[in-house]
Write a structure and sequence with these properties.
The chain has helices spanning about 25-30, 30-35, 40-60, 65-80, 85-95, 105-115, 125-135, 160-170, 180-190, 220-225, and strands spanning about 5-10, 10-15, 115-120, 145, 175-180, 195-200, 215, 225-230. By secondary structure, it is an alpha/beta fold. The strands form 2 sheets. The protein has a 6-stranded parallel sheet with strand order 4-3-2-5-6-7, with helices on both faces. The relative contact order is 0.20. The mean pLDDT is about 95.
């Protein structure tokens, strides 16, 4: 892992799914009902969810992330020969109450205490983000949750990252952006943010331009890495 100091930061902005919230905890809540297909369904659900955001952006056929999440779950269930409408509904509802990673609340609390603006910048629809933040008890440690719904295109389009600087009136270099998705980290770095890739599962480095400035295994080191703007 590579840590560095991020200087002149005024806002710490986070991807939501996979970074703050464990996307596999939805299936985890219903693992017994899926049996030995649980991991395959969860992994395929996430893979297709991301693919559909990229493909819909390229096709200019935007629908919100709730629709994408449902479509990708339908694919994953059919591909794994799971035909259970009630389970499908329960999995979708579970996505509104994903578990947050154990260090998240403490990290956000420390950043807020240091005077940082904290926010989510996510593909998630506003209702999804509001539900996830409320379920995890993060309302008091987040200043905002920005959704791509406002502009109708998904990450890593540069206009998504521009939402953060427009919202807070900052220069890109005054924003620290954290994501567990290496492709998202690359998109944010290309835009000009100071970026930490939260490599939670020891994944290989993406071969994309403008990679992250730092690589960390969890968000825990972040408060000690960030130096506020004078």
């Amino acid at each position: 892992m590579t840590e560095k100091r991020f200087d002149g930061i005024r806002a710490c902005v986070f991807d939501a799914y996979g970074t703050l919230f464990d996307v596999h905890s939805a299936v985890g809540q219903h693992r017994e009902r899926l049996g030995d297909k649980a991991d395959a369904v969860s992994n395929m659900w996430r893979m297709k969810q991301l693919q559909y955001t990229w493909l819909r952006s390229l096709m200019r056929r935007y629908v919100d992330f709730w629709q994408v999440t449902g479509d990708s779950l339908d694919f994953a269930l059919e591909a794994n020969e799971v035909d259970d409408a009630a389970l499908r509904d329960d999995l979708m509802n579970a996505y509104l109450a994903l578990e947050c990673y154990p260090e998240v609340k403490d990290v956000l609390t420390r950043l807020k205490a240091a005077g940082m603006t904290t926010a989510i910048l996510s593909n998630g629809s506003p209702d999804m983000l509001q539900a996830a933040v409320r379920s995890a008890g993060l309302e008091s440690v987040l200043d905002d949750a920005l959704s791509v719904d406002a502009i109708g295109i998904y990450k890593p389009d540069p206009d998504v990252y521009k939402m953060a600087i427009d919202r807070f009136g900052l220069e890109p270099t005054q924003v620290s952006f954290q994501s567990s998705n290496a492709w998202d980290a690359a998109g944010a770095a290309t835009f000009g943010f100071q970026v930490a890739w939260v490599n939670r599962f020891g994944q290989a480095r993406e071969r994309l331009p403008d990679g992250a400035d730092a690589e960390i295994a969890t968000l825990a080191p972040l408060p000690d890495m960030v130096t506020s703007a004078a």
